[in-house]
Each structure stands twice: as structure tokens, then as C-alpha cells.
Amino acid sequence: MIKLKSIEEIGKIRESCQMLSETYRALIPMVSPGISTGELDRFANSYIRKLGGKPAFLGYMGYPAALCTSVNEEIIHGIPGKRILKEGDIVSLDLGINLDGYFSDRAVTVPVGTVSQELTRLLKVTEECLFLAIEQAVCHNRIKDISQAVFGHAKQHGYGVVREYCGHGVGFAPHEDPQVPNYVGRGPNPRLKAGMVIAIEPMINMGGDEIETLSDEWTVITADFKPSAHFEHTVAVFEDHTEILTL
Ligand code: MF3
Ligand code: CO
Fold it and tell me: Which residue of 14, 33, 70, 97 has the fewest CB atoms within a 10 Å radius of its CB?
């Protein structure tokens, strides 16, 4: 069931999203060769609490950290720890905030120092997928318009598209209906309505579509070990425009 949000409720979700943007403004500059993923997680956790929020993912379905840190061939749900980031890596940072029961969700993939041209292109195209998708996320369009925008742009560049994980409704919980796939398949295809708040999150692989999950039961990687990128925004649909709440 899709839960529509009132203007007042979107206002609270916007506050949560702005807190998340502020956290990223502090967190992203910390990414550099030599820092551990655990340090990034500890920073994000304490920064959010200082601002008066709670990390939305810590404890969610048993997830053990505030932040997801997915390096290179890791796609999503990488668990922060002792791993040291090195020059030439890319790292996806995925984070959400619970502010008084209102949830935000955002992800970015960041280069560590200088990275190859190939990786730079993967990051650029994946972020373009996100913005092309957001352009389609307007009132009266359908979910598949979003999916098609991501899928078409990624495939035009010869990239793989993750099918097993999707974008989603968000706001009253970390994950709500509807699912927002990055590929065009069968399944529900609701029309977008004013009051819908969704997280759009292309996960794009330099190689094939296939994924595997590591024995930690969280970390999702590419089956061919080629690198993967992930960008996400929370957006609110209004009758006459769509607002990127996590900008
Ligand atoms: N950020 C992820 C998403 O966009 C959620 C992380 S789920 C958790 O859907 F279980 F790892 F917390
Ligand atoms: Co999400």
C-alpha cells in the first residue's frame, strides 16, 4: 500500500533529508586514501546524533552499522570495519536518518583520491541515470518511466543493471511501497501521485547484471567482480513539480 504524505508530513521528511545532506557535506570530504570504512561510519553516526537525529539503518533488519560502505565490486550493504580505503578505489556511502519518525535516504559513490577514467565514467553515467530518472518522477507519470530512464541510459553505455534491489517509497519507514526498479520488467506499475515520496537509486555495474551476496549475509557484490556504482536521492512528488529533498 502506497502511503501518500501531506504537505506537513513532507515538511518533516524534508527536515530529515536536509539533516542528511548536511551530514554528507561533512562526510564526503573525509573520504581519502588511508581512512577506514569504520571511521566513516563512526563519524556519520555521531554527527547525526549531534544534529538530533538517529541513523535509520542501524539495527534495521539487523543491519549492524549506521552507514553502508561498498567498495569497488561491492554494490550495496557493505559493512564498515577495518578496511582501509586506498587511492583508486570507489566507495558507495549509503545513509538514512530517522528524525522524529520521519525517514530520509541518500547514497553517493565517491572516488578515493584519483581514479581511472573508466571509473570516472561509471560514476558520471550512474549519477546521470539518477537525474534522468528524477526528471521522469513527475505527477501522472508511472514508475516504469523512472525504470526506463535508468535502464536505457545504463545500457546505452554497455553497463549492467542490478535487478534484485530497487528504489522504494520512504518517509514513514526506511522502505515503503512502491518498489522503484531500475529495469523494465513485469510487476506493479503505479502512477505517480502528489504526496508520494520515493527513493530512486540506480545500482550500475561496469560488467554484467549478475550479483552475489557474501557470507556476512549483507554485502552484495558483482558476480564478475567488476566495479559498481550507486547514487540515490529522496524526492517528493507534487502536483506541479518534483522536489529533490536530499539535494
Ligand atoms: N539505503 C538502503 C536502501 O536504500 C537501505 C539500507 S538497508 C540496511 O534501501 F538494512 F542496510 F539498513
Ligand atoms: Co534506498
Answer: 33
